[in-house]
Amino acid sequence: RKIDGNNIYFYEYLFDDYASSNTTITQYRYPKFAMQNLKLVFDASITGVFMSYFKNVGVYNVEISGARISGLTSYYCYDVLINKYTNFKSYETTLDGGYAYGYTIASCQNVNMQNCFISGAKHGVMIGGNFPNRNIKIMNSYFSEQVNGHGNCELVDIIGCTCYGPLTFWGKSVRIINCL
Length: 180
Fold this sequence. Notes:
This protein has strands at about 1-5, 5-10, 35-45, 45-50, 55-65, 70-75, 80-90, 100-105, 110-115, 115-120, 125-130, 135-140, 140-145, 145-160, 160-165, 165-175. It is mainly beta.
């Protein structure tokens, strides 16, 4: 970021754009987050790992089971890489308040998910939130249930995935390429 008189120059994206005659801009210094080689086992209506307001997120070789709200959630995160994430046994019951999402992407930008295996969830991946999710890429992954864009998503690519449920999206510029 560079400040020159009344001008502020940003070299990274903001989460969204706004117009106002009297504008206050706040640039947050998001912390980084990394998690690797971890196995978490739950049997409850909880979120296994909830990551919020992080930049440069890395999740590598992580297995989460039995977290019936969501196995993994990214909330207001930027530059996320999820690689070799496994989620299963989220489906046992949703009567106690669970949503059974394998991975939840909420109000995030630049999310890359690859080489993942999600089985037994209501939605393998759920994309939604208050602000638009932009530039989401899901590649070479397996989902036993649907991948769902609940809204607020644009520039989404699903590439080379195996999905045994529907791919449903409400958004702009969604591409599904070479999926089964």
